[in-house]
Amino acid sequence: MNVFSLREEEREARLVEELAELTAWHRQACPPYRRILDAIGARPPYERLVDLPWLPVRLFKTHELRSVPRERVFRVLTSSGTTGQRPSRIYLDREAAAAQTRMLAATLKVVLGERRLPMLVVDSRTVVRSATLSARGAGVLGMMNFGRDHTFVLDEQGRVDAEAVKGFLARHGGRRFLVFGFTFMVWLYLLDLGVDLSQGVLVHSGGWKRLAEQAVDNAEFRRRLGAECGLVLIHNFYGMVEQIGTIFLEGPEGDGLYCPDFADVVIRDPETWEEAPPGVPGLVEVVSTLPASYPGHVLLTEDLGVVRGVDDGAWPGKRFEVLGRLPRAEVRGCSDTFGQG
Fold this sequence. Notes:
This protein is an alpha/beta fold. The chain has helices at residues 8-29, 31-40, 59-62, 94-112, 135-144, 162-172, 183-189, 208-213, 218-229, and strands spanning 55-56, 75-78, 89-92, 117-124, 147-154, 177-182, 200-205, 233-238, 248-250, 257-258, 263-268, 282-288, 298-310, 318-325.
C-alpha cells in the first residue's frame, strides 16, 4: 500500500466525504464536541476541507473529549508539557489503536521498505526505561517497532558509546539500516562520530528550536550530515500525539513535508481564519481520518507553516513547511532539552 499516491483534487474529495462522516459520528458520540459545534453553528454540508469545523489542539488539555464509552478505552495517551501545563489526553479504543499503528507503518514503509532494518538510535537506552515515559522516550519506543538489533549511540550516562556504534557498523554498515533520533540529538552527536553512515536511512523529528538558535536550517542540516557522515537518505517528519498515527513525511529531496493519502493540511490566516494561498504563511490545521475514538480529526495547531507547492514534487499532494510556533503560543515542550529525557 502506497500512502503517497493521491493528487490534491482527488485527495480532497475523498477526505471531505470521510471527514464529514466522522464529524457526524463524533457529534453524536461526544456530547462536549456536540456542544462546541452547536455553539459555533457548524452544520453540513461541507464542500471543501476548509469548511469543516476545527478544534484548537489545546482543548485536549482542558476537556475530556472521547467518542467511545469509558469501558471501551484501551489506552490513554498524554502529550508532554513544561512545568505547570496540563498534558493533552487522547482516548483510544482497540480499533483506533490498531489503525494508528497500521497506518504509521504504512507511511514509514515508503522510505524504510517492508522489512525491519537494523536500527541505530541517537539517544540513550535510559530514555525508554523511565517509569514515566517522556515524549522523547515514547517517540524512541514507538520507532523501535520498525527496527531490529537496536543499538544506542549514547551510554546510560549520556556519553557517546563509540564502541557500540563501531560494533553496529561492523555488523550492518554494508547494507541498508535505520537511524532514528530527535533532530537536535542527531546534530549534536552524529556529526562528531567520524564514521561512515552512507547506507543509513535517517528518520528524525522535533528539536528544531535549538538548531534555529544556532542558525542551522534544514538545508544546512542535510548538507553537513551528507558531507561528514555520508547520510543522504534523510526524512524529517511532523506529527503530534493529538493525531497519533498520522505523520507528515519529508520527501526524498528535502523539499518539504508531504501528506499521506488519509490526511492533509490547511494553512489558515490567523486574522481571518480563511485559507492562506500557497506561499503565504499561517496557522497549520491538520486533518486525518484516523481519529475515530475521539474528535481529533480536524485540529488547528499552534504552529506556523506555509504550503510550498501542490502536486509539483516527488510525491503528489500538498508540499509544506513548518516555520515554528505562533508567537506567545503555549510551548508544547518535547525534545529540545536532552537532559529532560
